[in-house]
């Protein structure tokens, strides 16, 4: 398991995509292992329930598989406070800033997401990578 990469919610959601290429890419990346936060679990559950009309049993089954290959870190007050500074400094949406803060606090060096600028360096530690770019 690679604790060096942190997965944003969108990567996990692509496991369920009708776009086979993206679903396969998400599966391959997640199989390498990495880190997620409880925020990612919560966002996945909310989107899967509301938009994909999945049952909570189905959601739990998908997330159990994800948790088997990923370390899960809690959302903390320290994370929240760090996110406030990151949102201000980098002009991130707050929920994105919490993901970045979680990545940094977990000691990750790569944040895998399609929601931010590919290649962007954060605080000299974290690099944003979009795995779905050609």
Please explain how this structure is put together.
With 134 residues, the chain is an alpha/beta fold. It has a single domain (5-129), classed as Rossmann fold (3-Layer(aba) Sandwich). Helix content is 52%, strand content 15%. The strands form 2 sheets. The protein has a 4-stranded mixed beta sheet. A hairpin with a 3-residue loop joins strand 5 and strand 6. Helix 3 (38-50) runs antiparallel to helix 4 and helix 5 (77-90) packs across helix 6 (94-105). The two termini are 25 Å apart. The model has no long low-confidence stretch (mean pLDDT 96).
Average per-residue pLDDT, rounded, comes to 96
Elements, N to C (H/E): EHHEHHEHHEEE
List the total number of helices.
6
Q: In terms of per-residue confidence, which ranges show pLDDT below 50 for 5 or more consecutive residues? A: none
Q: Can you summarize the main beta sheet?
A: 4 strands, mixed
Rounded to an integer in angstroms, the radius of gyration calculated over CA atoms is: 14 Å
Distance between the termini: 25 Å
**Silhouette:** globular
CATH superfamily: 5'-nuclease
Number of domains: 1
Strand elements, count: 6
Q: Helix fraction?
A: 40-55%
Look at the helices and sheets and give the structural class. alpha/beta
Task: Write a concise keyword list for the protein shown above.
alpha/beta, 134 residues, globular, four-stranded mixed beta sheet, Rossmann fold, single chain
Question: How would you summarize this macromolecular structure in one to three sentences?
Answer:
The chain is α/β, with parallel strands linked by helices and 134 residues long. The chain has helices spanning 9-13, 20-31, 38-50, 56-69, 77-90, 94-105; strands at residues 5-7, 34-37, 70-73, 110-112, 121-122, 126-129. The strands form 2 sheets. It has a 4-stranded mixed β-sheet. Strands 2-3 form a two-stranded parallel sheet.
């Amino acid at each position: 398991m690679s604790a060096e990469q942190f997965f944003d919610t969108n990567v996990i959601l692509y496991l369920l995509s009708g776009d086979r290429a993206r679903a396969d890419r998400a599966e391959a990346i997640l199989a390498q292992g990495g880190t997620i936060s409880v925020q990612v679990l919560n966002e996945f559950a909310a989107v899967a329930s509301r938009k994909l009309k999945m049952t909570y049993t189905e959601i739990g089954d998908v997330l159990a598989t994800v948790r088997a290959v990923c370390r899960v870190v809690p959302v903390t007050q320290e994370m929240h406070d760090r996110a406030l500074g990151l949102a201000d400094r980098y002009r991130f949406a707050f929920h994105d800033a919490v993901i970045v803060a979680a990545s940094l606090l977990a000691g990750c060096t790569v944040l895998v997401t399609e929601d931010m600028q590919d290649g962007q360096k954060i605080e000299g530690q974290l690099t944003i990578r979009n795995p779905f770019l050609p």
